[in-house]
Design a protein that fits this description.
four-stranded antiparallel β-sheet, 14 helices, alpha/beta, single chain
Length: about 400
């Protein structure tokens, strides 16, 4: 079976402490609902309840989604440069479903597909399932995780079926500038390769950063954007995502047909939830988004301040999404062999769970989620400081 999940391959080997004296704190899973401090807006819940009570959305819809929901997505993400219609939208089972359909439409066995390193581990899983060669392009940690464009270009050949980008980034928490997005688009135009842009964290950015969609910025490159309601609306379990096809010149017609056909494999997204999308997109107050971003930024700022003061760790300041990447200075820590070993020993000794960067293609980093309440983050940082102090190399102290 061609399914391999990098997270499971490592995490299934992790030993959890038994009868630990301290409360378990997980900074590992990218689910904003876990701790209950980030709540769905009441208007969204009320809308879904009305739809359930109506008894009008219990049957099958068009496999690509209802006309009302697709028109709402098209309206929300249209721009001056890219006027979208219902026909440019396919609703899917979550953004992960959108990714699988978009990647499958582009790829044939034996093709290669470029994905970021570090990057969301599901990209690797889908490529393996499709029988596609994975080629990793580098994100540069000391340049706010921008793409090494020269290295990316060197990976492309006649069997490259697509390039996948992710902004804002999981796991990096980075938000690219418009100038960098324009540079990426110039390269993709030169290479003449389909571009898939994972924008599930669209608009989840902090002060001083602005989100730009590749589909909006592009002048001539057709872009397949994937996204959904999971993160911005704090409902990852509701499982509705979308594919947005920005193709003003009709260059992706064959791929669009393929994506529509692949969407028929699951007979469409959840009908109740997709029926709530028009009101969700049009009536959710701006204050809800602002408050969510404000809370995430407050938590991220706290982590940056605390962790930057812990010898043996250094942190790259995030610009958005829900994550921070922390570099583990292995040469400053005694008895720590790498990020996986760091994760295991931190869990056993302090009952704090983080994800090792190796999962994402970033050895000697760990990823922390910023969603937990501040008191949980405070306790986690206290324990991280104790752990690193306990393991601090004598040479690094001198």
């Amino acid at each position: 079976m061609r399914v391999a999940n990098p997270i499971r391959r490592i995490m299934d080997t992790i030993e959890h402490p038994k009868d630990a004296p301290q409360e378990f704190i997980s900074l590992s899973i990218g689910d904003p609902t876990v701790f209950g401090n980030l709540k769905v807006h009441q208007q969204v819940k009320d809308s879904l309840c009305r739809i359930i009570q109506s008894d009008k959305c219990n049957g099958y819809f068009n496999a690509a989604g209802s006309s009302e929901a697709r028109r709402a997505v098209a309206k929300r993400f249209s721009s001056t440069r890219s006027q979208l219609t219902e026909g440019d939208i396919i609703l899917t089972s979550g953004c992960s479903g959108a990714l699988e359909i978009a990647m499958a439409a582009c790829a044939n066995p034996g093709d290669n597909l470029l994905i970021p390193k570090p990057g969301f581990s599901l990209y690797t899983t889908i490529c393996a399932h499709l029988g596609v060669e994975i080629r990793y392009y580098d994100l540069l940690p000391d340049s706010n995780w921008e793409i090494d464009l020269a290295q990316m270009e060197s990976l492309v050949d006649e069997r490259t079926c697509a390039i996948l980008v992710n902004n804002p980034s999981n796991p990096c928490g980075s938000v690219w500038s418009r100038a960098h997005i324009e540079a990426i688009l110039r390269l993709v135009s030169k290479l003449d390769v389909p571009l898939i842009s994972d924008e599930v964290y669209a608009d989840m950015v902090f002060d001083g950063h602005t989100f730009y969609s590749f589909g909006e910025v592009s002048e001539d490159v057709p872009v397949i954007v994937v996204g959904g309601i999971a993160k911005r609306y704090l409902v990852p379990g509701w499982r509705v995502g979308w594919i947005i096809i920005h193709d003003r010149d009709g260059r992706l017609e064959e791929l669009k047909t393929g994506m529509y056909k692949l969407g028929q494999l699951i007979l469409g997204a959840n009908t109740l939830v997709q029926s709530a999308i028009p009101e969700m997109l049009e009536k959710t107050p701006t204050e809800f988004y602002e408050e969510t971003n404000r809370m995430l930024q407050t938590h991220a700022t706290y982590l940056v301040d605390r962790i930057s003061k812990i010898p043996g760790l250094s942190i790259i300041v995030p610009g958005g999404a829900m994550y921070v990447m922390v570099r583990v200075e292995i040469n400053q820590l005694e008895g720590i062999q790498g990020d996986v070993d760091f994760t295991q020993k931190l869990l056993l000794e302090e009952n704090v769970f983080v994800l090792p960067g190796t999962i994402f293609g970033a050895p000697n980093f760990v990823r922390l989620v910023v969603c937990p309440p501040l008191n949980k983050l405070e306790s986690a940082c206290d324990r991280l400081a104790l752990f690193c102090s306990r393991h601090r190399s004598p040479a690094s102290s001198s």
